[in-house]
Amino acid sequence: MNVPESKKSPMALIGEYTSLAMVLPISTIVGGGIGYFIDRALHTHFLWLVFGLLGTAGGIIEVLRQLQRSEKKKSSE
Fold first, then answer.
1. Is residue 28 part of a domain?
2. Is a pLDDT exceeding 80 seen at residue 77?
């Protein structure tokens, strides 16, 4: 799937950028959800926050990775 940016269809570009916009909120929600269920299992009240922050950090890292890949593709053209 090494199609140059200029040769991608508009719908492919829309899909690529939409996925970028969805990575951060989804990773935060998933991390918080995992923490919530662990909180319920262990009868604690703080793990949802810890896992939510870990999910947010993971989402930020993934967005940065995708942006770096996109920049490398643009510079190699």
1. yes
2. no
